[in-house]
Every structure is written in C-alpha cells, then in structure tokens.
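Chain A, query sequence.
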Amino acid sequence: MPPHQALRLLGLAGLGALAALPALAQDDRYYYGGLSVGRSRSSLDESAIVASRLPPGVAATAIASDDKDTGYKVFGGYRFSRHFGVEAGYFDLGKFKLRAATAPAGTLDGRIEVQGINLDLVGTVPLSERLSALARVGAQHARTRSDFSGDGAAVVTDPGARRKDTNVKYGVGLQYAFSDAFMLRGEAERYRIDDAAGRRGNVNLVSLSLVFPFGRAPAPTPRMAMPLNYVEPAPALVAVQAPLPPPAPPPPPAAPVPRRVSFSAESLFGFDQSNVRPEGRSALDAFAKELDGTAFGVVTVEGHTDRLGATVYNQTLSQQRADAVKDYLVNSQGLDATKVAAVGKGEAMPVTKPEDCSGNQAGPQLIACLQPDRRVEIEVAGTR
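Chain A, predicted structure.
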C-alpha cells in the first residue's frame, strides 16, 4: 500500500471517531505510554528469497528456517474518548534465519531483520469495570534488512538488501486496569512487510504490554447534604391553679421531615457504567449509617444525567443507576425493599441552566460545566 493511501485510510477512521464524540455522556481522556515484549513469527516466501540470491544454474534442494524470535514495542498514545484513541510507537520484530542446501553442492545462509514505526487508531469496548477488548488498525513504515552468505556453488553476489515501505497493520487484544495508573495488555498483531525478494509477507507478534496512563483527572468526591437536624418539641405548659385541671394531652408526633442527599455520578460509577464502584459503596455505607435510629416512611432514589447524548439512552442509564443504588442499600445495608423506590429522571431535571453551560458539542469545558447534572439523589422522609 502506498504511504499516502495508508495515511488517508487512518485519517478517515480518526474523523469518524471524532464525529461520534457528541453521543458520549461522559469522557475519559488521558495520555499513556508503555512497553511490549512478545513472540514474533514470520510467514515469508522462503523459496523466493533463496532463489533471488542464488547464482544462475544453482537451485535449492532443501531449506531450513528459524521463523520465530522475540519482538518488542515502545509506544505512547492519547485516548480522546471512552472508545477511541491514537497510538504511535517503534517496533522491532526480531531476526529470522534460513539455510538452504543447493545443487551443485553449496550452502546459503540468510538473516532478515524488521524494525519500524507505526501510527494506529485503537478502539476500546469495555467488558466490565476493569476489563476491555481492544482492536487496532494503522499504518506502519518498516525497514527490512537482509544479509546473505554462501559457500560452494551458492556464491552470493548480492549479500545485503535494504527495503523500506509503508503498509497496513492490525490487531486485537484484551486490557485489564489494575488501577488508574497501571494496565496490562495481551495482543495479537499482524504486520505486512516487503521481504528480501521484493514480495510482501506477514510477521505476526503476540505480546504482553505494560501500560502507564498519566494526566488522568481524579474522581470527584461525593457531594452530600448536611445531616438532618433533630429539633426536640417544646415541653407542654401546665397551668398551676387550684384545683388542678386534667393534664394536657401529649403533642402529636412530628411530621416526617424530608432529607435529600446528592451524589455525583462519577463518585458512584465508572464511566458510562451502572455498577457501583468501591468508592461509591463507601459513600453509600456512610449515608446508610446516618439513617440508624431513623423511622423513615419511604426512601426515593433518583438517577439523573446531563443533556449530552440521546434522550432515550440517558433515560435508560439514569434508571439503571437508580436501580443499582437501591439494590446496594437493600442487599448490603438491610433497608426494607418495600420502602425504597428507584426512579430514572434522565436529563429532565438539570441543576445547571442553559445560559450557564452553552453549546451541544461534548468538549472538555462543556462536560466539566454539566458535571452537577450527572448525579444520583436520595430523599428520605422520616423522624428519629
């Protein structure tokens, strides 16, 4: 593939990814770097390579090859959305050796090395809170260097060759995030290269990668309302006179006082997820502890999203998050399920005003401005 065609293909893929950004309700942008080490294996046309180096009238009778070696990559990238990123790097696919016996009698020895640089578009599909599937396609500019020597009839007149060309590469893999600062990848990739005979062949690389993100924003802390203040009713006044009147009746019980607590979505859930994160469980545990001794009548859990993305999608996500918080309070904190209601409000009740956060394109400033709209609110009606 000519260089300008490969780069044009990659550019069109990148524009398609950028066009999808407005549909994302939340963002996860960061830079990262890493190192890969793995096993490389070539599938080159060995017969053609040997024939291209033998003198006229000399033919190979047997070819033995060592088509496996250790390959490595050094790379850096930028994840510009939850599902897409770009990555550039340097790769060394190792050295591949071959030996051919000839007729008339002789021996040909050869070695082929492949190094280069690449630029990839990397797609990510979350499978769980920490595990993701990866797919990549990109352009790579490889330098293929070959060296040959022979004896007997296999005298080499052209011992070395250097080829440079831009071709396509692609791959798939899995990635596991141990923390916000460390990830582990396993990938299988295919590199299309020009071999020593001027033909195109493949080199496959199966590798493990250490990935180190940096520049990630810390998760915001939960926003909680002030604890409910209990006001003791004033003591009943008793008139002192003779004879004493009957005692005054006790005051009626205090009406339930509603209390509303708001948690930011980022503090409870992962990006675009409805599973409660460990940090979110800690915040909900603290909230449940404050309810000890409260005779509540009903607990209402409301899920809210910002206005970015499709309305139907936001409504579904808000309901899933409200259900997840309800399930945690019932199953982990022992709240009565018949007294807990979960409602998804979608984007219908924003905290921000349109004039405060203008625009509809999901840029960093607009996403940060709309952060108060992405929340889960819990309202408790009860008395101590």
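The chain has two domains: 3-214, 257-383. The longest strand covers residues 131-152.
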